[in-house]
Design brief:
567 residues, alpha+beta, Jelly Rolls, Purple Acid Phosphatase, chain A, domain 2, 2 domains, eight-stranded antiparallel β-sheet, eight-stranded mixed β-sheet, 10 helices, 21% helix
């Protein structure tokens, strides 16, 4: 009996640390999503553990950062085990790294950071003791945070900066806590309810309850976007393929690059592809070997499916023009601004629908836009699709001068906002604008209203960052058109993974305006076809008329010869 009692006590003793020390570890493929929006905290506290031998960036403890176009807040462990606060407000980034602390101890550590937005002071506390003060030149006093918060990660593609240690508890407070309060919190086994925005302790399971009153529970979300069962399954008459920003695939995974164009060539017939749009940033570092490889692979589409190429900001003008000389590609170009492949247009037909693809370089000026105006105006019966590298944000708005990388940074006289107002909206027959440049996991489709009341579909495709931490994807965005060209459905396919990237934003159906109810597919210089019955009647008339001409000419010649003989 005594031995049994001792055995039971031993089990209880061994179980106590497990019960008291529930913690979470994290992976690329999963996210712990916080329910509801959170406000900007003034104090962040966390109990966590990091192995001593860990090298590199430790990852995000909690954050909602996506990119610099959206307001965000991250609490992270940066390089060398240094805690970090990273805030984005109205396009400005505020980065604070506490370099006097290293959390890589192999033991549980209580961290706290206070942020005084008025005095622009931040303090770091480790296990209740003040370790470092940071004074900032500027801090935003109020920031509405836009994206959902993730525990142990953030909203960057692929959750690349997921947390590499363990988290035991976490709390966000609306007030700047005092040193005494933080010291008490470090020793306490429960979270302080005073000014608590949200708090979570004894972290485990797929649902973690918020101990505060706001109900910001956390739920595990598995990345199920990759699937072999995705893809558009409906009826369609033809399709276009969009290839955006191959730079990372080209430079980092050159041995995988061929898979993208092999898939296009192998599937062009089955997918009824009528055109493949290149959207720039063909290379990452403008190196000659990158160009040579890209040209070899792009040329695989010759004779299989028509295609276009444009230059991105990673592609040098000189190398682009030398690798793609107009003389070599003149068979597919209807016109060029200056005898190069920088600004060109192409024409093609699908059934009764006439298209013109206007390929604009990212560096535009008055003369190029005047040429583009003339081209579009000269083909009023064609549905114009404009491609240019820099045009849309991931939120569907055009890029202006406040963007970190507008076209004006790369030799253009105009931002995308200005191009839209000065050129795109001016022409009723411009029906689509397609661009890359802004990394985005989704196929973004938005609309602009032209000066004539027409609707212009604007599309962004730049998949270079989709789960990039898990390797290359080699994405192709597909647009599937109804027979009248007005209804378009989409899917997003990885030629490397042989899977679809499937979510609501990548399986869209949207509408495109098309010129005319029954547009003609004949060029202006061509005569219209003649019905068979008319052909037969005109043939008989021609025979009879020809015979009469022969008789009359013969009679005239005979009369002349007869008169000469008499003479």
């Amino acid at each position: 009996m005594k031995k049994a009692f001792i055995f039971i006590l031993t089990l209880i003793f061994l179980a106590l640390p497990v019960l008291a020390d529930d913690s979470l570890t994290f992976e690329l493929e999963s996210k712990y999503v916080v329910d509801g929006g959170l406000e900007l905290p003034s104090t962040v506290e966390a109990t966590l553990l990091f192995p001593k031998t860990f090298q590199g960036r430790g990852g995000v403890v909690i954050g909602n950062y996506k990119d610099t176009t959206a307001n965000g807040f991250n609490f992270e462990i940066h390089n060398n085990g240094n805690p970090r606060i990273y805030i984005v407000a109205d396009g400005e980034a505020y980065d604070v790294i506490f370099d006097k602390a290293d959390v890589r101890t192999g033991e549980k550590v209580h961290l706290a950071v206070t942020i005084n937005y008025e005095t622009r002071e931040l303090f770091l506390y480790v296990d209740g003791e003040k370790v470092q003060r940071k004074k900032m030149k500027a801090l935003p006093e109020s920031v509405p945070l836009e994206n959902v918060f993730i525990l142990g990660g953030d909203n960057r593609s692929g959750n690349a900066q997921y947390f590499k240690g363990e988290i035991f508890s976490l709390a966000l407070y609306s007030k700047v806590k005092t040193e005494e309060e933080i010291s008490l919190d470090a020793k306490s086994e429960s979270l302080d309810p005073d000014s608590l925005i949200a708090g979570w302790e004894n972290l485990s399971g797929e649902t973690i309850k918020d101990v505060g009153a706001s109900g910001h529970d956390i739920k595990l979300s598995i990345n199920e976007n990759w699937t072999t069962e995705g893809g558009y399954k409906g009826e369609y008459a033809y399709s276009f393929a969009l290839v955006g920003d191959t730079q990372s695939l080209n430079y980092n995974y050159p041995q995988k690059f061929h898979l993208l164009y092999d898939w296009i060539v192998d599937n062009a017939e089955d997918k009824k592809m009528k055109f493949v749009f290149g959207l720039g940033d063909i290379t990452d570092n403008n190196l000659l070997w990158e160009w040579a490889l890209a040209k070899q692979l792009i040329n695989k589409m010759e004779g299989v499916v028509p295609y276009s190429v444009i230059r991105g900001n990673h592609d040098g003008i000189q190398n682009y023009c030398e690798i793609f000389p107009l003389a070599e590609y003149s068979h597919m170009i209807a016109g060029s601004y200056d005898g190069s492949m920088l600004n060109t247009y192409q024409t093609f037909e699908v059934g009764n629908i006439k298209y013109l693809v206007l390929n604009l370089d990212l560096a535009l000026n008055d003369e190029i836009l005047a040429w583009a105006d003339e081209v579009v105006s000269s083909y009023p019966d064609r549905n114009v699709i404009v491609t240019t590298h820099i045009y849309l944000h991931s939120d569907g708005t055009t890029v202006d001068r406040t963007d970190p990388t507008p076209a004006t940074n790369y030799g253009s006289d105009y931002t995308s906002d200005e191009i839209c107002e000065r050129f795109i909206k001016k022409h009723e027959n411009i029906k689509m604008v397609i661009s890359g440049h802004r990394p985005c996991d989704n196929i973004v489709v938005t609309y602009e209203t032209g000066d004539n009341g027409n609707k212009i579909a604007q599309i962004l495709v730049d998949p270079q960052s989709i789960d990039v931490s898990q390797g290359p994807s080699g994405m192709v965005a597909m647009l599937y058109f109804s027979e009248d060209g007005k209804t378009v459905s989409t899917d997003f396919y990885s030629t490397v993974k042989n899977k679809y990237y499937y979510n609501d934003e990548n399986t869209l159906t949207f509408e495109v305006e098309v010129i005319g109810e029954n547009p003609s597919a004949t060029d202006p210089e061509e005569l219209p076809a003649v019905p068979a019955e008319e052909k037969d009647m005109k043939g008989w008339i021609f025979v009879v008329a020809s015979a009469l001409v022969v008789v009359i000419v013969g009679f005239a010649l005979g009369f002349i010869i007869g008169k000469k003989k008499k003479a």
